[in-house]
TrEMBL record:
Species lineage: Eukaryota, Metazoa, Chordata, Craniata, Vertebrata
GO CC, alphabetical: external side of plasma membrane; extracellular space
Alphabetical list of InterPro entries matching this protein: Ig-like_dom, Ig-like_dom_sf, Ig-like_fold, Ig_C1-set, MHC_class-I_related, MHC_I-like_Ag-recog, MHC_I-like_Ag-recog_sf, MHC_I/II-like_Ag-recog
Ig-like domain segment(s): 208-282
Name of this chain's protein: Ig-like domain-containing protein
Taxonomic source organism: Pundamilia nyererei
Amino acid sequence: MVSWSDSFNHKEKMILLLLPLFYHGLFAVKHSLMHSVTGSSGDPNISEFAGVVLFDGTEAVYCDSRNKKLEPRQDWMKKIFSNDTQHLALYTQQCFEDQPKIFRFLISTVKGGVHIGQRTGGCEWNENTDEVVGMVQYGYNGEGFLELDLKTLTWIPLKPEAAIIKKEWDTDTIVLKDIESLLTKVCREWLKRYWSYGSSFLQRTVLPSVSLLQKTPSSPVSCHTTGFYPDRVMMFWRKDGEEIHEGVDHREILPNNDETFQITVNLNVSSVRPEDWKRYDCVFHLSGVEDNIVTKLDKTAIRTNWDENNRTSERNTFNSFYLILIYVAFVHFLCLNSGRSQRPFFPFKDRQPINPCMFPTPVPCFLFVPVLRYL
């Protein structure tokens, strides 16, 4: 049963009363601005180039070489472009001229197959301390390849193949200084400007729905909460009003496709006696909301697909048994007729298998070119 409740023990009440005082410590107010660009070759179903701007994890701007259209995805971003045509022109040039040209040149050095290069760069601003931390990372075919250490202004290879690139890029101090300025100064200015436009939207509060889920009667019970915003939350299981840790599995917060989030915390109930279930509940706390959502551990409220899975398992068992009978009959037939023909029944038994790895993926040589001025 899901309900809003303030029925907590004395310790929890004190924590809730002090939350406003310690809020900035519990939930560090940080904002991020990330620019991610991707170039690809060898697959007609993938855009040759795509770029996305994420502000606090929310998609603000998108463009790709297929649609040839710059798309501000938020009303506050549309307002920025409307008020500052030069800012719009800068994004337009980067999306449809500079960045595609750079990635097209770099990836053209790799021949054959499908290849994807990615660069992600941006910064994170701590609203409490005003500290800004920048980052930039290169990826190749879905894996991290090279990243920059801004403290030492040196590149860190994430793959052995990147070591030789690191040596060359570390010597280009002019480019490194440009990157440092972009990630610590320019990014800070843009981030604060975006926050001034989008703060009302990004500070909104969206309440979630909470469900109890269980795959089988012996599986853990999942307290699943989805549809909340922002992602500054706490969720835990309690017994007799006290938070418990034994038998509890906390899963990470995941994004939904509607710019909200979801989280799951599992409780192992294998050792919980049926009469003790009523002593347990799941507590969800959303930053900025005074009341918590408390969900009692109740068998009647659990959503499960056990009955359907059980029927499917029984059908699969029957089908497997039926196939085994057919196979036995087939082998028996072959044995009875083995002497009637001199032709081998399996004509390919002497052939060598084809090695699918005989053509290894080429080294990502396009990453050797230190074109880094456009972040």
